[in-house]
Specification:
This protein has seven helices and eight strands, in the order H-E-E-E-H-E-H-E-H-H-E-H-E-E-H. The strands form two sheets. It has a five-stranded parallel sheet with strand order 5-4-6-7-8, sandwiched between helices.
Length: 284
């Protein structure tokens, strides 16, 4: 069953494309018609593509892999930040730092620098700095937090990118393509879908459209995370049950060994007493 209905997409304005003169011919398969000089997206294909993308993302999340959300346009920034934070996924809503994927070790060094500054403020190192140095370091920390704070827990390259407006985020898409990282994206009629692995034909300018698509995608990812946690719990219980039998056997053997030792000690003690009594009788 589809995660979103045709009516929901229609109400959110997902079907509105760009002016005909701005279209990209590669988007022709996803265009239903033209009306008043504006292309209308085929929502039946949107539903199918959205369901396909959601299923793949759910499987990625279930296996414990991370999805990086990218949206630096004004309409999408806050929505992406809220939705990604709710499911614990990294995101970029400020300017895309060039080389973030292709030069990931350098980005990680910048993130570690934030941790170093935090450590300095806690261990008293700040107290030994001048007012000017403190101000410079504080500003540097704030700048790093703004640019990289949302990916601070991203310790390795993401398993996939989810992009809103592939034209605006072309650098991120190019880096992901170079590294073979799959790209999921909301693709409007003015964009080139050839660089996107999972195209979701939709209006990437309207706030309602962005929010609805993200809601469906994030719900799928959250389901995958929950399934992954449940699977891990089942594996742990199964492993404990497998270990329980050997543990019981070891406990039984240990108990039998203790009983045997006590019995042997009692017999040895009895023999010693009998021997002592016999010796005393002989001496009498």
């Amino acid at each position: 069953m589809s995660r979103v209905s045709f009516e929901q997409l229609l109400d959110a304005g997902v079907h509105f494309g760009h002016l005909k003169r701005k279209w990209n011919p590669a988007m022709a398969p996803y265009i239903f018609m033209e009306r008043n000089g504006i292309h209308v997206i085929d929502l039946h294909k949107t539903v199918a593509k959205l369901d396909e993308a959601s299923e793949v993302l759910r499987n990625l999340a279930r296996s414990g892999r991370r999805v990086l959300f990218v949206a630096t346009k004004k309409q999408a920034k806050q929505i992406v930040a809220d939705k990604a934070t709710a499911i614990g996924m990294p995101y970029v809503v400020e300017r895309w730092p060039g080389g973030m994927l292709t030069n990931f070790p350098t980005i990680r060094k910048a993130v570690k620098k934030m941790s170093t500054i935090d450590k300095m403020s806690k261990d008293g190192t700040f107290d030994n700095l001048s007012k000017r140095e403190k101000l410079q370091i504080t500003r540097q920390r704030a700048k790093l937090e703004k640019m990289l704070g949302s990916i601070a827990d991203l310790n390795r390259l993401p398993a996939a990118l989810f992009v809103i407006d592939v034209m605006k985020e072309h650098i991120a898409v190019r880096e992901a393509n170079r590294l073979g990282i799959p790209v999921f994206a909301m693709v409007d009629t003015n964009s080139d879908p050839s660089t996107i692995d999972f195209v979701i034909p939709s209006n990437d300018d309207a706030t309602k459209s962005i929010e609805l698509i993200l809601e469906v995608v994030c719900q799928a990812i959250n389901e995958g995370l929950q399934e992954g946690r449940a699977s891990e719990k089942e594996d742990t219980v199964a492993a404990e049950q497998e270990d329980e039998t050997p543990r019981r056997e070891r406990k039984a053997r240990s108990s039998a060994r203790r009983e045997r030792t006590v019995k042997e000690d009692d017999e040895a003690l009895n023999m010693a007493v009998i021997s002592r009594v016999a010796k005393d009788l002989e001496e009498e």
